[in-house]
Design brief:
Layout: E1 5-7, H1 17-28, E2 35-42, E3 48-56, H2 63-74, E4 81-87, H3 94-106, E5 110-117, E6 125-128, E7 135-137, H4 145-152, H5 161-166, H6 173-193, H7 199-218, H8 225-235, H9 238-248, E8 263-264, E9 267-268, H10 270-291, H11 298-310, H12 314-327, H13 332-342, H14 347-353, H15 360-368
Parallel strand pairs: 4-5
Antiparallel strand pairs: 1-3, 2-3, 2-4, 5-6, 6-7, 8-9
Helix pairs in contact: 1-4, 2-3, 6-8, 7-8, 7-9, 7-10, 9-11, 10-11, 11-12, 11-13, 12-13, 13-15
Length: 372
């Protein structure tokens, strides 16, 4: 079984079963395939969506374990009810669905919707597992109010989970090996000069990251060998990385590397500026996860996970953490972030943990302590 993709609650409402299926790609960030998806719901009508979970469809021998795991995980969303949806398998997945429903009801979660869908794209068939046997054809996403609400919130649906994974997979092995040699040489030179960087040196390292972020916002960032090595060196200093991480969660939503609010037609637009800065930062961390050799790639990959968690994109956070773990097994920040993801931490709670201060990692540990 793959990691469970958890998406924290969204402010999206649905009024029909087909709309819920059509909204899944925007809740998860990609079109699920051969997947079991659980959505917690709130309110009497069950139309207010909460925590969304996705796992690959398991082989028969793992049905019970998967059912117990996803039902327990859905409890993190304190659901009033739940929808259980199978994408790809249809009626043959009924034994798994029955097991999941049993586990949810054992936890006193009312299961009001149990469906299957061939796919989550418009024109695909869907049906209900209940005796009513209702079903039909999924609507064009352009006509779905739930999809429109998701898009308005900034949700994007990629073709599949593989597209997310490719965001962080190195594509130029020769360039990565070349940069690895440059980083080794840089570390040897640094070791010859004595202990870690002085305060003035730290300011310079922060400036390296600030400059890259500013150029990313402007759409003119170029990641050549020198730039990648400089950024990897800067982020390898925990005080620099942690400073960037804390600023990502600034109370205003505008990262501190912004020296002035964005302007539109000469007027400050802090909300749009914040969104532009956040998007540029996320693109930079993803690019560095691809372009930086191991183990240094763990740092930008962890920062990508932070960005994803702050906007409730559980699948991207999992992909980024997988990359960080591959680059640096045992990486402390990655381990702590994984605990936060597995605990289903909501973006607002996670943001509070990353407030200014030297103990962000300890705050994450404290916030997830005692959770399943």
């Amino acid at each position: 079984m793959t990691s469970t993709d958890r998406t924290p609650p969204a402010t999206i409402r649905v009024s029909a079963a087909a709309d819920l299926i059509a909204a899944l790609p925007y809740l998860l960030g990609f079109h699920p395939r051969e997947s079991l998806v659980l959505v917690s719901t709130q309110g009497r009508s069950g139309g207010s969506l909460g925590l969304t979970l996705r796992v690959d469809l398991p082989p028969p021998r793992h049905r019970r374990a998967v059912a117990e795991s996803v039902a327990g995980s859905l409890m993190l969303g304190a659901p009033a009810g739940a929808a259980v949806i199978v994408v790809g398998a249809g009626p043959p997945a009924r034994p798994l669905v029955d097991r999941v429903v049993k586990e949810l009801e054992r936890r006193r979660i009312a299961v009001h919707t149990v469906m299957w869908a061939e796919s989550t794209t418009g024109g695909g068939r869907w049906g209900c597992y209940d005796p009513c046997r209702c079903g039909g054809i999924l609507p064009d996403p352009a006509t779905s109010a739930a999809v429109a609400a998701a898009v308005a919130e900034g949700h994007v649906a990629l073709g599949d989970r593989g597209e997310l994974e490719r965001l962080v997979v190195p594509v130029d092995a020769q360039a990565v090996r070349r940069r690895e040699a440059l980083l080794i040489a840089a570390r040897e030179r640094a070791a010859a000069t004595g202990p870690g960087p002085e305060p003035d040196d730290l300011d310079g390292l922060v400036g390296v990251v600030d400059s890259a972020l500013a150029e990313a916002v402007a759409g003119r960032l170029v990641l050549d060998d020198d730039r990648v090595v400089a950024l990897a060196t800067a982020l390898a200093e925990p005080r620099v990385r942690d400073s960037v991480m804390a600023r990502c969660a600034g109370s205003t939503g505008v990262p501190a590397w912004s020296n002035a609010p964005a302007t539109v037609a000469g007027r400050p637009e802090p909300v749009e500026g914040a969104a532009r800065l956040a998007a540029a930062a996320e693109q930079l961390w993803a690019a560095l996860a691809r372009e930086t050799p191991d183990p240094e790639a763990a740092e930008p990959a962890a920062l990508l996970a932070v960005s994803a968690m702050l906007r409730g994109h559980g699948a991207l956070a999992n992909v980024a953490l997988d990359r960080a773990e591959q680059a640096w097994p045992g990486h402390r920040l990655t381990r702590l972030l994984r605990q936060a993801v597995d605990a289903g931490m909501r973006p607002d709670a996670f943001r509070a943990c990353l407030g200014p201060g030297p103990d962000e990692a300890e705050d994450i540990t404290a916030a997830t302590a005692g959770r399943p």
